[in-house]
Design brief:
Order of helices and strands of chain A: EEEEEEEEEEEE
Structural class of chain A: mainly beta
Distance between the termini of chain A: 41 Å
Largest sheet of chain A: 6 strands, mixed
Radius of gyration of chain B: 13 Å
Number of strands of chain B: 11
Shape of chain B: globular
Oligomer: heterodimer
Largest interface: A-B, 23 and 25 residues
Mean pLDDT of chain B: 90
Distance between the termini of chain B: 37 Å
Low-confidence stretches of chain B: none
Largest sheet of chain B: 7 strands, mixed
Radius of gyration of chain A: 13 Å
Shape of chain A: globular
Mean pLDDT of chain A: 91
Strand content of chain B: over 45%
Chain lengths: 114, 116
């Protein structure tokens, strides 16, 4: 079955510290992988996506993610977290088709300490 | 580019009434749009896939007669919650895919529905 797992429901980091949010997926075909961020009461903003090619993907707001096929992972990283990064983060996997639906992980809430 | 507008951003309605939510792709054509429902502090649950010019495809367990979806043009899909009840209160989000350049799925800003 297709699924996405974000093992960490809640993470707290200090401002300026590095961040890694974990994402593992189970998908039968070649997946398209996404990370989205959601602020309270808002829609989702795309941080980055992986379709093919270089397994290290750069996104907006200083985020990056690395696709590791052998580990079925697509972890999100940021070297130095800002207070404005506090939000909900969702990993998602989709079919290699532009009409395919996305499967979302449970989400990780990021709290940033001053 | 790839902007999706969702309206209204919030709505309060009385039990038994119907509410329509619009999802528009502003700068691209979207043959397919998706409607999600999100409960507080939970992930997004896909409700249905909206196909331009044809019937929507509903996920298992979603009542198609309660959640009416119409995708009349390449830039507009609507979700109508019919005979709303308090248990329908939720955050509804639409998304669309930019087919031309496949920039990925762009999401609307969501609609907070409260049924009283």
């Amino acid at each position: 079955a297709q699924s996405v797992t974000q093992p960490d429901i809640h993470i707290t980091v200090s401002e300026g510290a590095s961040l890694e949010l974990r994402c593992n997926y189970s998908y039968g075909a070649t997946p398209y992988l996404f990370w989205y961020v959601q602020s309270p009461g808002q829609g989702l903003q795309l941080l980055l996506k992986y379709f093919s090619g270089d397994t290290l993907v750069q996104g907006i707001k200083g985020f990056e993610a690395e696709f590791k096929r052998s580990q079925s992972s697509f972890n999100l990283r940021k070297p130095s977290v800002h207070w404005s990064d506090a939000a909900e983060y969702f990993c998602a996997v989709g079919a290699a088709s532009n009409t395919g639906k996305l499967i979302f992980g449970q989400g990780t809430t990021l709290q940033v300490k001053p | 580019g790839a902007v999706v507008s969702q309206h209204p951003s919030w709505v309060i309605c009385k039990s038994g009434t119907s509410v329509k939510i619009e999802c528009r792709s502003l700068d691209f054509q979207a043959t397919t749009m998706f409607w999600y429902r999100q409960f507080p502090k939970q992930s997004l649950m896909l409700m249905a896939t909206s196909n331009e010019g044809s019937k929507a495809t509903y996920e298992q367990g979603v009542e198609k007669d309660k959640f009416l979806i119409n995708h009349a043009s390449l830039t507009l899909s609507t979700l109508t919650v019919t005979s709303a009840h308090p248990e329908d209160s939720s955050f509804y989000i639409c998304s669309a895919s930019d087919m031309d350049s496949y920039k990925g799925y762009t999401f609307g800003s969501g609609t907070r529905l409260t049924v009283v």
